[in-house]
Amino acid sequence: MPDWIVIGGGITGLALSYELQKAGCSVLLIEQHQQLQGSSSLGYGGISYWGATTAITRILSEEGITRQRNLSNELGMDTEFRELDLLLTLEPEADSQAIFAQYTHCAIAPTLLDAKEAHEREPLLNTQGISGALQFPHAHLNLDCFVEACTIAFQRLGGKVIYAKVENLLISGDRITGVSTTEGNFQAAQVCVCAGGMSRTLLKASGINARIYFTHAEAIETEPVDLELRAMVMPASTKRYSLEAATTDAEKDRLWDIKGQELLPPSIDAGAIQFRDRHVRFGQLSRVLTDPYAVIDPVESEANIRASVSQILPKVGELKGKWRHCLVAFSNDSLPLIGAVKEYENLHLFSGFTSPTVYALPLAQRFAAHVTGKPDEIIQLLSPNRFL
Q1: Cα distance between residue 87 and residue 122, in whole Å
Q2: Three-state helix/strand/coil letters over the chain
Q3: CA–CA gap between residue 309 and residue 282 (Å, rounded)
Q4: So what's the pLDDT on residue 39?
Q5: Which residues lie closer than 8 Å to 336 by C-beta, 6 or more apart?
Q6: Which among 1, 284, 364, 384 is least buried, having the fewest CB atoms inside 10 angstroms?
Q7: Distance CA 235, CA 89 (A)
Q8: Which domains does the chain have, with CATH numbers?
């Protein structure tokens, strides 16, 4: 019997499994899909280490970017890590000074560019569609490469992976004894849920409430193209964050357990990234639907994404590509939920990451140390029970 079962093999689940195994624990990682379908398969892969605004996030951001810069060597495989510019575009009528002021409290302050200067750094930008941009030093990795490299490194250390759908948790008295899956039952001393946007549904099926939520995220992915996008482009005023903040108050929290609810109209944050093999991912449309299995019309979504992206990156908006969809987990204070839940001391959460490429690795390392005898104050502060 393993020491740990980790549910979910995306960025967070793999990072945690790897660090627990490295710390001397035996780990069984259970992932539903052999080819990932969640946010780890559709994220941009940006590493916003510049964005820390508190003492805790500054510590974690410094640890996170240090790990990412050395991760290919550590894992023995290329994660396609690279440093590049991030341009946060400003809408034509935006108050650029006011928006700039909102970012000056970040660990690294941005450079304010006018439309011409932004175009010089990213020639694909439409100067008529923006009033300027905020420029940050940024980093990027290929999430597919990260997942593959981390999986191999985890298995090299003795970790086990099973591809199966977890249907429910096995409970005996005041303890979780394991999980029931489509491939049978598995037992462990400790269980950790790292299922991203499906975490809430999985826990609810066992009568466990956690203040973790999800949006439906949609983007378009192309084949490799001749066009060259030099920078990562995103909006300075991110509508998704406002959407998330507006759907977790006390009034709306109860609606999350009622399927078929759309808590707010969808929003689009026009942005794009080009990967090293030259394929492009652009979007992103976000919906707050309480049913994780809700059916979405891809034709309408793709048209809306293209129209929005074409305003700032016309040539990108015209690229042929495939519409894709996933769930993205979040909490109501933008910090992940890490640690044991109130109901069962051996059932843990490691989910709700707004910036998993920054925080997952350092927090996985800290969590592994914490549960093997070295208490960590940051892990304690991120307990799922902080909202009770």
Answers
A1: 8
A2: CCCEEEECCCHHHHHHHHHHHHCCCCEEEEECCCCCCCHHHHCCCEECHHHCCCHHHHHHHHHHHHHHHHHHHHHCCCCCCEEEEEEEEECCCCCHHHHHHHHCCCCCCCEEEEHHHHHHHCCCCCCCCCCEEEEEEEEECCHHHHHHHHHHHHHHCCCEEEECCEEEEEEECCEEEEEEECCEEEECCEEEECCHHHHHHHHHHCCCCCCCEEEEEEEEECCCCCCCCCCEEEECCCHHHHHHHCCCCHHHHHHHHCCCCECCCCEEEEEEEECCCCCEEEEEEEECECCCCCCCCHHHHHHHHHHHHHHHCHHHHCCCCEEEEEEEEECCCCCCEEEECCCCCCEEEEECCCCHHHHHHHHHHHHHHHHCCCCCHHHHHCCHHHHC
A3: 8
A4: 67
A5: 12, 350, 351, 352, 353, 354, 359, 363, 382
A6: 1
A7: 5
A8: 4-78+143-211+334-387 (3.50.50.60), 117-129+213-330 (3.30.9.10)
Amino acid at 79: T
pLDDT at 334 over 90: no
Burial class (CB in 10 A: 0-12, 13-18, 19+), 95: exposed
Q: Which of 3, 9, 12 is nearest to 353 (CA)?
A: 12
Higher-pLDDT residue of 349 and 197 is 349
pTM above 0.90, yes or no: yes
Q: Are 127 and 121 in contact (CB under 8 A)?
A: no
pLDDT by residue (tens digit) across 280-306?
999 999 999 999 999 999 999 999 999
Nearest-angstrom CA–CA distance, 88 and 235:
5
Query: Which residues are within 8 A (CB) of 129 and not within 5 positions of it... i.e. 6 or more apart?
Result: 89, 92, 311, 312, 314
Sorting pLDDT into bands at 50, 70 and 90, what band is 38? low
User: Rounded to whole angstroms, how far apart are CA atoms 198 and 241?
Assistant: 19
Strand partners, 133: 89, 113
Give just the sign of the alpha carbon dihedral 128, 119, 115, 313: positive
